[in-house]
Amino acid sequence: MKRTFSILLFLLLVIYAKEGYELATQVNPVQSFNTGSLSDVAEEVIAIPLETNAHCILSHARLVKRDGDNLFLLCRQQLYHFSCSGKFINQITYCNSLYKNNILASDYVIDPVHKQLIVTDGQQHIQYYNYDGDFLGKIDLPADYAGQSLGKLAYYDGHIWTTVNRAVLRKEYNSQLCMEQWLYKFDTTFHRVETRKLTVAELGRLTIDYALEPEVAVANRQVYVQAPSLQPDELLQDTLYLISRNKLDITDGYSSILPIRISSRFLVSTHYNPNDEDKCYTFCYDQQKSRAYNVQGGLVDNFYGTGKVRELQAMDVYSNSYCFYKSSEEVKKAFPDRKTGDNPVVFIVKLKA
What we know:
Layout: H1 2-27, E1 31-33, E2 42-49, E3 62-67, E4 70-75, E5 78-83, E6 88-91, E7 107-111, E8 116-120, E9 125-130, E10 135-140, E11 149-150, E12 154-156, E13 159-170, E14 176-186, E15 192-200, E16 215-219, E17 222-226, H2 235-244, E18 256-258, E19 261-262, E20 266-271, E21 281-286, E22 291-296, E23 300-301, E24 307-308, E25 313-314, E26 321-326, E27 345-351
């Protein structure tokens, strides 16, 4: 009896997902491509060759962010400051106890109001710096955050937002320890302002109720959370389902973790796996043209001829600007003067509006 019920439930879920997909595709027929180039989605791509000198030798560029003409990035858990033309300005943090600015930086946010950088080591330690690299102070998160894992930080509306993994005992599962995902809102001194329990978005099919690598984003002036899909082949179907059910209307208190980021025109999902580049993907759904690009290995850079863009990183919470970096032989065509060992070239991608 129990087995029969399980089979019937599974069949109902399959039919439910199929009807949702068919409804979406009938209303809005979609062209789908498994190849694509940056020019399909980008209005422009700006190249920033980072200056190389004895004080700054970088192998890569992560978490690239900007404020005006100030460009910041992480490399080997150290925070660097450049101009938007690529001129090296200063190193903000160091992985060396001889420096006061000593912290193994795992993440940071720019506070553009106070022109300060808020840096975390991924544990409970927070440090503050101005753009000149002057140390402004530090705080430790309260003891009740011990054992809780902070996700990527985001700055929006004068506050810091992040996801938090919380281990809780669930009585309905025989008091087993289960992981819950929450959205936390802090002021800039990490006093908690608001919390919100999160659940993976309902997609009309069976999914895993846990999201990897969640990030905070903003649409309709409201905060939501996005995480890359564990099933990229299903992204088009999932996107059309979310559209057909009006689940992309982000409202105050929105608690679903979406598989896509919402820009003004595109719905985007990207994932980079440094251990298996074949599992990298970029998904872009053009809401104006009802056209989808779901490209394994990433879109091709046909602006500067650097090959496939395997790692496309969102630069801001609004999801309209992305970036990637290339170095060595990959940039020879566009920058013949760049030598082996020079710092990477950062490329900023502005999506079409």
